[in-house]
Amino acid sequence: MVAVEPAEALARIAYLLETQGAESYRVRAFRRAARVVADTPPDRLGHLSRSGQLTSLPQVGATTAQVVSETLARGIPTYLETLEAEVVPPLEGRAAVIRDQLLGDCHTHSDWSDGGSPIEEMALAALALGHRYMVLTDHSPRLTVARGLSPERLRSQLEEVALINQKLHPFRILTGIEVDILDDGTLDQEVELLQKLDLVVASVHSKLRMESDQMTERMVTAVRDPNTDVLGHCTGRLLQGRLRPQSTFDAEAVFAACLESGTAVEVNSRPERQDPPVDLLQLAVASGCLFSIDTDAHAPGQLEWLRYGCQQAVDAGVPDGQIINTWPAQQLLEWTEDKQRP
To answer: What letter does residue 240 receive in the DSSP assignment?
Structure first.
């Protein structure tokens, strides 16, 4: 491994922990320490390390202090070496081909809702992975537990995205939202605002145990809304942590509505979701649907999770040409604009 600076080591550890789905408090500890260390003059950092006083710096605890000391002493801390050794091997075969074709990620979150990092930090991580764009899709108002964006906050976010895009050009943050599908299938945001966004992911987050016929009507109504571009994590299942079974609905009817309206079905890459499961994903393929392979990332390192969605797509036989985030940004925008036309 190449020697790094202490702040780089701390930031890289945070990133690798994110790829592993580590608890957010652990990641935050390393990211906060990285910012403090980066702002500390090298001479002072060295003095504090030699005198055993690194923990006198704000946000630097025993573990992060050890990382700094080891980095200063030999260029690479042991903890970083351990994490680098655990990095998942590259994809192979068709999954690798699909991953290379992906130009962006259509479902990401920032610290404006329940993500852990600022918008620009998420965008820079996407850029480092070779993406050409990233759709920012923070939550909508009803999801208060995730600090969903009110119309006023969403308008403010659009202004910030415009400023960041000026700095990162030609990389582009596309404006978006993960809008809650309400009980009656309507979308949890002002129609005028939804029409302004580049891409809208619509997802069910409440009453996941709704009766099958009611859930079917709810989802069909949502995907037929001209402002819905992608149906997010359609079954709502959770395979890790607090387990949750998948919602029940008439998948044939929902996917037929997706085909009819041109709404893409999300292949949610989060390891605890892997949603939809392969059997439903195969049904969506047989129905002729479009797809969006997304990470639903809430932290920079989670943008790496596209690999899992690519493997899901291979397992279900998702065909070439039907994955919307293999399209250049302009083609994607033309598609979403066409969907909104009566």
So the answer is: S
Q: How does the average pLDDT of the chain come out, rounded?
A: 97
Tens digit of each residue's pLDDT (9 = 90 or more) over 111-135: 999 999 999 999 999 999 999 999 9
Backbone angles phi, psi at 94, to 5 degrees: -65, -30
Tell me which DSSP letter residue 187 carries: B
C-alpha 15, offset from chain centre: 14
Burial class (CB in 10 A: 0-12, 13-18, 19+), 338: exposed
Check if the beta carbon of residue 96 is closer than 8 Å to that of residue 291. Answer: no
**Which pLDDT tens digit goes with each residue over 210-268?**
999 999 999 999 999 999 999 999 999 999 988 999 999 999 999 999 999 999 999 99
Residue that is written with structure tokens 């850029």 in the block: 127
CB 301 within 8 A of CB 121: no
| Token output for 86 | 């655990």
| List of domains in the chain | 6-85 (1.10.150.110), 93-340 (3.20.20.140)
Helices (H) and strands (E) in the chain, counts: 14, 7
CA distance 148 to 271: 23
φ/ψ of residue 128, rounded to 5: -65, -25
* Mean pLDDT on 176-185: 98
Question: Taking a C-beta distance cutoff of 8 angstroms, is the pair 98, 274 a contact?
Answer: no
Residue 90 has which token pair? 């590259």
293 forms beta bridges with 267
Residues ≥6 apart with Cβ < 8 Å to 138: 109, 110, 112, 113, 114, 115, 148, 149, 154, 157, 177, 178
Axis crossing angle, helix 212-224 with helix 251-261, rounded to the nearest 10:
10
Question: Can you tell me the distance from the alpha carbon of 91 to that of 65, in angstroms, rounded to the nearest whole number?
Answer: 35
